[in-house]
Amino acid sequence: MAVSAKAVSQPKKHIKMSAADKTYNIIGIIIFSLVTLICVYPFYFLFICTISDQNLVDLNLITIIPRGINFKNYVEIFSVQNLANSAFISVARTACTTAVSLVCTSYMAYFFSKQNMWGHKFWYRFTVVTMYFSAGMIPEYLNNRMLGLTNTFWIYVVPAAISVYNMVLVKTNIESMSPELEESAYMDGAGYLTRFFRIVLPLQKPILATISLFTAVNQWNDFFTTKLYITNTKLYTLQFLLYELLQSVQAAANQITTGNQGSTITATGIRYTLTAVVIIPIICVYPFIQRFYVKGLMVGAVKG
After folding, report:
1. Cα separation of 254 and 47, whole Å?
2. Residue 256 Cα distances to 244, 249, 266, angstroms
3. I need a surface site. Which of 4, 102, 107, 225 has the fewest CB within 10 A?
4. Neighbours of 31 (CB within 10 A)
């Protein structure tokens, strides 16, 4: 005789919380709310300062609510010479370097995960050592110059093609996979490239999203590479342009004011607005990757 689902279903039990548990939860909510406020407020303060009256900002009269709301800072800051081109270079650099590093680092990790690779242990340890020891800035500069990378876009891409730390994370994650997945493809005649791109890589989405975030943030924020290797202004990144403007922020404010009669933008306004322009893209991208972030680190950090 069939038993209905209602007959076997158990009634939900409501666990009554004690006064101590309720107090603990309330204290936890208060603490985490304060921590969240501390983390979010600097970004909020930065934004309201960019859209408030600059005279009030200079007098430190803006704290919580924006006053004299206007978007002149954003309109006028984009009139700074070479800003649009620098933004394009930063976006192109971040996208290209992240894609190249993702493929190269993952492919290197895939081969180091193969125990039958010739000299597997030696080459893996030799590679990991470079995380702790390097030749130094001067040999690295000379090497890149001899390779003809100075004053070219490829100086942003080629040196960052491999990240040993990210490679270790991906390698550990690949080793946690079931070997039967590859063995079945090998029996069907699939080579290394086919197995890597069609089987291994699609199963690494969490860890790939994690290292993509690492690489993209590092590339987006970096300005020292431009300072060291680039003299062509057409290859300046947004971050380097920000660095230069911050070095002569008052002159930049005068330049904008001279070119736009009636402008009220100030040196403080330039600092706030350029900082906002640089961090807003990363803030917008992060929520889409964050759901993979913790899972990717946990899976990649512990071998199953």
Report:
1. 22
2. 15, 11, 9
3. 4
4. 10
Instruction: Return the DSSP state at 161.
Output: S
User: What six digits make up the tokens of 234?
Assistant: 């057409």
Distances (CA, A) of 283 to 269, 276, 279: 20, 10, 6
Q: Quick one: residue 62, left, alpha or beta (phi over 0 = left, psi -120 to 50 = alpha)?
A: beta
CA angle centred on 82, ends 80 and 88, rounded to 5°? 120
Contacts of 97 (CB under 8 A, 6+ apart): 156, 157, 160, 161, 215, 219
Distance CA 68, CA 267 (A): 18
Q: Model-level pTM?
A: 0.72
Is 265 within 8 Å of 253 (Cβ atoms)? Answer: yes
Provide the strand spans (E) within the chain. none
* Per-residue pLDDT tens over the stretch 136-179: 788 888 988 998 888 999 999 998 888 888 888 888 888 887 77
Question: From CA 112, how far away is CA 110, in angstroms rounded?
Answer: 6
- The beta-strand segments (E) located in 44-163 are none
d(C-alpha 99, C-alpha 122), whole Å? 28
Output phi, psi for 209, to 5 deg.
-65, -35
Q: How far is CA 95 from CA 88, 101, 116, 215, in A?
A: 11, 10, 34, 10
Residues in contact with 158: Cβ distance below 8 Å, sequence separation at least 6, in sequence order: 147, 149
Longest alpha-carbon distance in the chain: 90
